[in-house]
């Protein structure tokens, strides 16, 4: 028989009503409390909808056909009766409702051996307390135990019966006759929520052994609820620390569709996201375990790419998920937190195995028959038990629980059973404290003590909240202000044993009571077996970690854990994994190739080692060599007319100054220092002024010589060799004064040019005073312009007599080089500005050397027949093309 779909909840339930939407399997029943009476009247609404339009007489015809049958109950009498709620069955089969005849009773199905062991543990603990007689001497505990069938309806109905049933029973001692003063249960959080709301109205204490929903810690809503099961708040804290410990950043969550699943998953999601992790998926397992829905959940787990999935679900829901995962071939290792385990409870296993249908008390136990028939797959009454897979054979009576190995008789993992055991003992200690109250020192008004002959639930609740004791296993039991116990978990790893069976191996521990400064979570990594019998911790990230030298770049429309790794730009570094941003280096530092560290920038200057420096050095030495060669040629032919013409002394002085010009360029190459910066500019300025002064002197000599050939001219006497030397010295002295003032006021000095966009520190010479530098260049330009002007005026003199034309060409080259130098120098970066200045020096020097001395060397070496006075004094027509 298929389980029918659950009756859906309405979007807006009515206040004070139990609401079920109009469905063939649902009805609406409302409880109306009249202000003039103490009784509640159960009335039926229109089952087909539109009841508000029915006449009142029609409504009064609807009546309750019969009272519901009593629920099965296991009972033992005692001085104080403890209520017990256990979900001995996993589901309920609802009958079809035609609303034309009396519906058949609902039937619980799917007997749960583990829950049956929990119930037997409660009975064992009660009998142990009664037998030992030291905790409650001359006082016995009894019990009333119901099966809540894993449904809120059955749990609530059982709670009503524990409160005295639906009749008008007698009131005795302040509460209904037959009412229990305390209830142990229920298991699931969803069931406990329903029960706690009901029992809280009567201030009847409820001690749950398996409900972990953090919502139950709300004392304003559940004032009488306590538990020996730690709250999900602590369990989530442990899970979050586990995720943090293994550095999992991409985690999936699958939760059951109940208070435990939804509440726990919500708290986990909020906490884990605060640590920087992200949710790969968040799925809800439907209670009907529909095949399509389960397949869709597993498919989304597979496509999400996560390596870790947290399952917040009851065992039935988790089992359905795992079955579907196995069917689709999605396998994985399992690990989780389990509550503290009792290694061994003496006498419990023998108590569990005592059951037999032939025992004297078997007839009083309504749960023994379905348990026995489910264990041995036989029928105790020969009716076949209604097995859908076939008729069950009749039990032989020789069956023995000791010969069967199942979860009921397995006492190796006593966790929830231990919680039940502690719950019973907590109640017993509370009753002990009540019976030990000294008259006049009680906790109630007027220091009254409770009446132990008639235990009031609200008084027992007070003592339960104060319970604090250590049991025979050394474990402490107490409740905090929210009714929660101390949270201690074992970290359990599911491993395959040698024979293929599943073993639960404890691989760690979480202790909420750990003092500040010590780790709450302890894990033995070497003991953990991961998926595929691996010992390596699985990686679960949306994106792999960004290594040092890179930074995260968030992907648009993706969670924060999904990102790309972008290499840091030059000049920036990241020296940690998963850096959010790259850090820019200080101006004097630059990033290394891996962008993981800042290293000092390379110092860049025009050195003798680089290609440009070598080239300029070679050109400068070549110029010096050429000049020295010309000097040698002139020295060897100093008596010839072409050398003696125009004052040979000026020619040698000019060659000497050109040699200095070529050599002064060398001061611009090499690492700048205080002395080199001052020397390079002053040497350049003075040597060039000396050179131009010599050229200017030669130009003046040419003009004077031409004037001297005129009749009655006495010009050459006014500008003879002494005057020429004085003139050159005076011109040079002016530049010396300018350079001296420049060096005294604001001399050139080395400067480090550091830009954030460059990997080099450019070392160059700062001019110091821009005015001084401009005066030096300006004075050179003034002399060059004057020389060009005079040479231009002498251009029409006879070619064979003078060198005015060559001086004009040399000055044109000189001026062109230095005029183009200015914009090139300003726009050239770093050492290239220095190279530009050296190039201008060498270019202008070669221009002077070539134009002034190459023609003479040509005549001396190749045309010696023209090197005579007759040829030099011969007149020729002026050059018309110049």
Task: Please explain how this structure is put together.
The longest helix has 35 residues, at 674-708. By secondary structure, the chain is of the alpha/beta class. 39% of the residues lie in helices and 16% in strands. The chain has 22 helices and 31 strands. Strands 4-8-5-11-12-13 form a six-stranded mixed beta sheet, sandwiched between helices. Strands 17-20-21-22 form a four-stranded antiparallel beta sheet, covered by helices on one side.
Features of this protein?
16% strand, 882 residues, alpha/beta, four-stranded antiparallel beta sheet
Give the topology, please:
Blueprint: E1 17-18, E2 29-33, E3 40-44, H1 56-60, E4 73-76, E5 80-86, E6 89-93, E7 107-111, H2 113-132, E8 141-147, H3 152-162, E9 171-172, E10 175-176, E11 182-184, H4 189-201, E12 206-208, E13 225-227, H5 232-245, E14 250-256, H6 259-274, E15 278-285, H7 291-304, E16 308-312, H8 315-327, E17 334-339, H9 348-352, H10 368-376, H11 416-435, H12 457-465, E18 468-470, E19 476-478, E20 488-496, E21 502-511, E22 521-523, E23 550-554, E24 563-567, E25 572-573, E26 583-584, E27 589-591, E28 598-600, E29 602-604, H13 611-636, H14 641-644, H15 648-664, H16 674-708, H17 715-718, H18 721-745, E30 749-754, E31 760-766, H19 770-793, H20 804-827, H21 831-862, H22 869-873
Parallel strand pairs: 5-8, 5-11, 11-12, 12-13, 14-15, 14-16, 29-31
Antiparallel strand pairs: 1-2, 2-3, 4-8, 6-7, 9-10, 17-20, 18-19, 20-21, 21-22, 23-24, 25-26, 27-28, 30-31
Transmembrane segments: 612-636, 648-670, 682-706, 726-745, 770-794, 806-826, 838-861
Protein name: Extracellular calcium-sensing receptor-like
GO cellular component, one term: plasma membrane
